[in-house]
Design goal:
heterodimer; A: 111 residues; mainly beta; seven-stranded mixed β-sheet; four-stranded antiparallel β-sheet; 47% strand; B: six-stranded mixed β-sheet; 12 strands; 0% helix; globular
């Protein structure tokens, strides 16, 4: 299985300030078709995870542009340009290159 | 807009079979893969497996010997059965749409989720 490792596991941020979360995979997430199947989700308290970013850097419909994803191969980053109070929750990276799909441990973001 | 809703017993006895169904509304299950995931305090989010509308399946090897996923196009739902459960199977179980492709070729994954169903394994 591909192991996904996130850091930090918790993050205390001030509204209006930037935040950054790292996600590393135990092997490259690049498919033979050239695409990289790394995704980011936010799980707010008591809710199911919600999709933020597809294929490393493509914001899902309706996701604010303060969220951005970057990276390649095995190293990826989610950035929030200016954290807002509604961004509180646990962020997860997920790989869908192989089955079983695997998740990072989650990064808890608090204000 | 597609909506998913899990249903099933919230309490299952050890050694028995956990059964959940995910009802899909606002769209058809045809032409998509559908995924089950679970979340427990001890193991975080875990991918259980996925089923295509035709019944083709892919399972997490860690659960494969106990797992059966199925799809029912006539009822527009899909189901999970996990046998011989133990306390380690206590979790919130989520169903989700596995993926689809946007017109620009981007693969969108796990875009729609059910609200989750808490299942406790206890005698």
């Amino acid at each position: 299985d591909i192991v996904m490792t996130q850091s930090p596991l918790s993050l205390s941020v001030t509204p209006g300030q930037p935040a950054s979360i790292s996600c590393k995979s135990s092997q490259s997430l690049v498919h033979t078709n050239g695409k990289t199947y790394l995704y980011w989700y936010l799980q707010k308290s008591g809710q199911a995870p919600q999709l933020l970013i597809n294929e490393v850097s493509n914001r899902f419909s309706g996701v604010p542009d303060r969220f951005s994803g970057s990276g390649s191969g095995t190293d990826f980053t989610l950035k929030i340009s200016q954290v807002e109070a509604e961004d509180v929750g646990v962020f997860y990276c997920v790989q869908t290159l192989q089955t079983p799909r695997t998740f990072g441990q989650g990064t808890k973001v608090e204000i | 807009q597609i909506h998913l809703q899990e249903s099933g017993p919230g309490l299952v006895k050890p050694s028995e079979t956990l059964s959940l169904t995910c009802a899909v509304s606002g769209g058809s299950i045809n032409n998509y893969w559908w995924t089950w995931m679970r979340q427990s305090a001890g193991k975080g989010l875990e991918w259980i497996g996925r089923v295509y509308a035709t019944g083709v399946t892919e399972y997490n090897p860690s659960l494969k010997s106990r797992l059966t996923l199925s799809a029912d196009t006539s009822k527009n739902n899909f189901s999970l059965k996990l046998s011989s459960v133990t306390a380690a199977d206590t979790a919130v179980y989520f169903c989700a749409r596995d993926h689809y492709f946007e017109n620009n070729g981007i693969r969108v994954a796990f875009d729609v989720w059910g609200q989750g169903a808490m299942v406790t394994v206890s005698s």
